[in-house]
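Design a sequence for this backbone.
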């Protein structure tokens, strides 16, 4: 291992050591000091974020941005997602503070699992080799299975974890089989080498089948139709902060590898798989938004909403142009913050281990907590893509990219389904403002205020002043977009 390798991996090394120490803390006598666990993980996340920034500055002076036998990249794309993931996990920690304090489960184990999930997500963001991407994906998935079933004595939590584990294992096997077929045809697992090999292949059934299996495994991770069946049950049964994690950070990590694999490794085969992804995108938008119309359970409603949003993100991936890639980065960021704001508001209504599950729980919220009812409207408008929220900027880039790449019919479906989504989002607004309020007080803790406040600020600031976000997304996606452009000009 060279010094350059250490620089590339330093954030992951720091986080791995810290997460391991959190796991063994109860064994060495810290079990009774549960309050210290939160500060330990937050300090660890701050150190990790600082190391990402420092290492990115050091890497700028190195001759290349790919290390470890071309398995690991530390480019702008990876740095953007790593910092986003760290921020999202820090907010999940704050969202978990209240329910962990009142529960009988170990905070040390919980935060350690979040740390290990973050390690996997960071490997996914930097992966330019299908083996390293797969390892990172499995580390995140295994941690997620355990976190989903963290309420060991709750039947819904255990059932959700079992469903997630079984279906996730099947999807991992499908993905791995697809990777093996791609390796068999191209002779490599490195995305750049795969791209070069594909430029010399006119047609190959085994390769196409491998790409389809790989895409199926990735579609499961982002909850796209028809690989979405796990989503509503898992969101409903998982602890509410973990449902927030699955719908934001975990999905963002899957989007990151989806974009890198298809923009860099499989770009030259786009004519063979883009129509399939277009169909999946359309079905996800239609089924996700229409199914959400019938839901009275807020967590299931958000689950179906996330299926619809997976369809929107696929617009940027199948577009295979610079605007589409920028749109993926922008939309992932604004989606994460809007969703975390919604989950924070849901947790304010918590009266037991499962929080704010019914639309009725929001009745009269404008009287009990007028500011946070207003914030909830902003978050819902952002998910619907209504200006002046940041969600409008993200959807603009995705829809424009689809039109540029010849998928105008998909953009029309996306606009129509965005309009449909506003109907079920505004069911919550109607409950907050037009129905009689409940007598119960909301549990607005300082941690929930902080998370919701940050999310509200990000959603409004980037909606009104989007230039800094657009510029950062353009810069962060430049390496991946450049690779796609080179492959386009050097195609068959």
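Sequence:
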């Amino acid at each position: 291992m060279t010094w350059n390798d250490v620089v590339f991996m330093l954030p992951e090394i720091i986080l791995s050591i810290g997460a391991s120490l959190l796991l063994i803390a109860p064994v060495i006598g810290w079990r009774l000091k549960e309050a210290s666990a939160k500060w330990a993980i937050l300090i660890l996340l701050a150190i990790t974020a600082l190391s990402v920034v420092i290492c990115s500055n050091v890497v700028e002076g190195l001759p290349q941005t790919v290390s470890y036998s071309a398995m690991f990249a530390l480019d702008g794309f990876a740095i953007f997602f790593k910092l986003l993931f760290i921020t999202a996990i820090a907010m999940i920690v704050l969202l978990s503070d209240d329910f962990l304090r009142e529960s009988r489960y170990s905070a040390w184990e919980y935060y350690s699992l979040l740390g290990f999930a973050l390690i996997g997500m960071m490997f996914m963001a930097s992966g330019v080799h299908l083996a390293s991407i797969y390892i990172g994906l499995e580390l995140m998935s295994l941690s997620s299975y355990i976190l989903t079933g963290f309420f060991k004595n709750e039947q819904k939590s255990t059932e959700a974890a079992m469903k997630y584990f079984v279906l996730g294992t099947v999807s991992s096997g499908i993905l791995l089989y697809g990777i093996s077929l791609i390796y068999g045809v191209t002779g490599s697992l490195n995305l750049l080498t795969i791209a070069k090999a594909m430029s010399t292949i006119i047609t190959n059934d085994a390769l196409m089948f491998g790409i389809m299996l790989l895409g199926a495994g990735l579609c499961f991770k982002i909850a796209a139709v028809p690989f979405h069946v796990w989503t509503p049950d898992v969101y409903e049964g998982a602890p509410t902060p973990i449902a927030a994690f699955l719908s934001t950070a975990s999905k963002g990590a899957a989007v990151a590898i989806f974009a890198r694999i298809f923009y860099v490794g499989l770009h030259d085969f786009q004519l063979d798989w883009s129509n399939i992804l277009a169909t999946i995108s359309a079905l996800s938008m239609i089924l996700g938004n229409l199914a959400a119309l019938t839901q009275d359970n807020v967590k299931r409603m958000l689950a179906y909403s996330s299926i619809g949003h997976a369809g929107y993100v696929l617009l940027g991936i199948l577009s295979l142009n610079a605007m589409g890639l920028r749109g993926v980065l922008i939309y992932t960021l604004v989606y994460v913050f809007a969703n975390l704001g919604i989950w924070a508001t849901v947790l304010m209504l918590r009266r037991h281990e499962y929080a704010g599950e019914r639309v009725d729980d929001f009745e009269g919220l404008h009287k009990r907590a007028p500011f946070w009812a207003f914030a909830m409207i902003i978050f819902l408008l952002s998910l619907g893509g209504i200006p002046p929220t940041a969600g409008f900027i993200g959807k603009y880039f995705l829809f424009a990219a689809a039109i540029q790449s010849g998928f105008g019919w998909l953009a029309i479906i996306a606009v129509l389904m965005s309009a449909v989504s506003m109907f079920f989002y505004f069911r919550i607004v109607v409950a907050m403002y037009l129905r009689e309020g409940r007598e119960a007080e909301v549990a607005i803790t300082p941690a929930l205020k902080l998370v919701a406040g940050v999310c509200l600020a990000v959603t409004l600031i980037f909606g009104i002043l989007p230039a800094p976000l657009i510029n950062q997304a353009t810069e962060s996606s430049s390496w991946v977009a450049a690779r796609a452009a080179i492959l386009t000009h050097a195609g068959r």
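The chain is about 75% helix and 0% strand.
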